[in-house]
Predict the structure.
Amino acid sequence: MRTQVGIVGGGPAGLLLARLLGLAGIDAIVLERRTPEYLRARIRAGLLEQGTVDLLNDIGVGARLDRERLIHDGVELAFDGQRRRIDLKALSGKSVTIYGQAEIQNDLMDAHEAAGTPIVYAAEDVSLHGLTGEQPHLRYRKGGKSHDIACDFIAGCDGFHGVSRQAIPPDVLRIYEKVYPFGWLGILSETPPVNHELIYNNHERGFALCTMRSLTRSRYYLQVSAEEDAAHWSDDRFWTELKGRLPPDVAARLVTGPSIEKSVAPLRSFVAEPMRHGRLFLAGDAAHIVPPTGAKGLNLAAADVRFLAEALVAHYKTGSAQLLDGYSTKCLARVWKAQRFSWWMTSLTHRFPDASPFERRAQGAELAYITSSRAGQTTLAENYVGLPFA
Ligand code: APR
Ligand code: PHB
């Protein structure tokens, strides 16, 4: 077998890239470890920047998104019993979109089914070879048989636990990492959201986030210890703890109900540099992880893939390697801005178990400053809605 671009991973990054390449007439094969059923059911975050919505529309997978999305012009921060709204639209000119990333996975899979993109699901033991030569290739096993695909380029879109990043020699790769001393316990429930916009709550019992998937489906998160087991959280315990962390007027109108899903996710900041090694290009979570505060994960993956598709298309159309050569530097400039923002939003809204009384006071002052000064509000707003593309 041979293809122009071999894509490892069929999450949002891999499927977006495959679609962009397919539309430009470039062949790609996607190798994905999981089954389609597993991918379609995987629950993820739910907030999209306008740039991500535009990209989905450009590649023809925006129809259901346009029908079902909720558009939010603002977001709230709650602390010390007060609620402060940041008017995203007035401050930045942009809004954000609520639409489950799981829905995007489904929309992309449907588009690929219709287009007939070769996607190998349940591909086992994927490995990458010859990355610094002229003709890299991918090997995998399926149904007890080994397969080999010769490629011009390989895109490593296989997420944080994938094999692509690990195929880069450790002496070439620089890793920057920060692990937070807490995780998020999330639940999804078939209940109306407690507020029409998101509320990020900094409370002495810990951070809580009120978000949603639709007008009838809510998603709530609680800061918990990183080792917490979701099995120790009955629905009752979750709702009681959430109420305790919300401002009283919000807690009073919280509608509770049975959870559809409940899980704990650790919080991590991670960047691997460079995002290219020979003919391998990393994109999305394979190269970087942000803590979920601000929901930049999928938005960053979409930005990487947009740059990578542009560079590959330029290569095949003009023979120029200029954009491919600039890929890593261009992505990392955006990645680090989103890293800084996600880390800062996390630092602003969470209770750090080892914070000194001084640090706690400074955090309170920063919340007061950010929510009261127009400059402070603007710095949050312009990052939250997504920085402009260079
Ligand atoms: N071989 C093949 N596929 C693999 C392998 C492997 N060895 N390892 C992982 N994968 C697959 C995973 O099963 C997954 O479907 O790669 C895919 C990676 O997808 P994501 O983890 O979703 O990463 P990415 O596509 O970069 O998405 C970026 O989107 O929904 C959000 O929160 C999510 O931040 C993430 C963002
Ligand atoms: C979500 O809706 O799941 C979500 C929204 C905003 C965040 C994180 C998660 O900052």
